Amino acid sequence: MIGLVLAAGAGRRLRPYTDTLPKALVPVGPEQDGTAKTVLDLTLANFAEIGLTEAAVVVGYRKEAVYERQADLEARYGLKLTLVENDKAEEWNNAYSLWCAREVLKQGVILANGDTVHPVSVERTLLAARGEGRKIILALDAVKHLADEEMKVITEDGRGVRRITKLMDPATATGEYIGVTLIEPEAAVPLADALKATFERDPDLYYEDGYQELVDRGFTVDVAPIGDVSWVEIDNHDDLAKGREIACQY
């Protein structure tokens, strides 16, 4: 199993930082050896802490900034990095971005969005939930008070995820998907096929819509509640401020 980070997005709501950087490289933590920690740093550190030795990073917007840091990131976290290019990062949404990593998925991955600041306890929770035929396990926050923007999930005992979308009444949701997933190798081909069907239907769809496509096809997608932990998806400057507070805790 290896790590996988989706870091192709532009993050236009984080300008001026993202005028020159992909969102995953916007500074969120204190400086270390003259370099401020980013979401990508924090995620790779999590991967290293759970014993992974390899990771892939899907790049697109301002990809040269990731290439420039590749050697430093490898040395800093002891991970061999493979960069996977998304040629439509500024045109299409992330269902296509994850599909670009379809060959990587065959190794089994812990997938993390490149804008989610979270503790390593999330990865540990996913690893602890492996087994008993589970092929895809989503990290679920069942504690947070939900609003309209969150990626909400409805689950059913014994059947896993029944619905995953931002477009639902928050009061009906079981919790929020936080942007971290464990994907076993045997799920790679069906997931890639579902993602392809998703972006071909509408290139603006999310990879979570690909998860819904899988569920609609009868594939079981499971969840693992992460407990009451501090995390944030960084979409705007308010989120960035919160992310910087959280990063100092880890």
From TrEMBL:
Keyword Oxidoreductase found: no
Start and end residues of each Nucleotidyl transferase domain: 3-168
Keyword terms: Nucleotidyltransferase, Transferase
Entry keyword Hydrolase: no
InterPro entries according to UniProt: GlmU-like, NTP_transferase_dom, Nucleotide-diphossugar_trans
Entry superkingdom: Bacteria
Pfam families cross-referenced by the UniProt entry: NTP_transferase
Matches recorded under Gene3D superfamilies: Spore Coat Polysaccharide Biosynthesis Protein SpsA, Chain A
GO MF assignments: nucleotidyltransferase activity
Protein name: Phosphocholine cytidylyltransferase family protein
UniProt source species: Streptomyces jumonjinensis
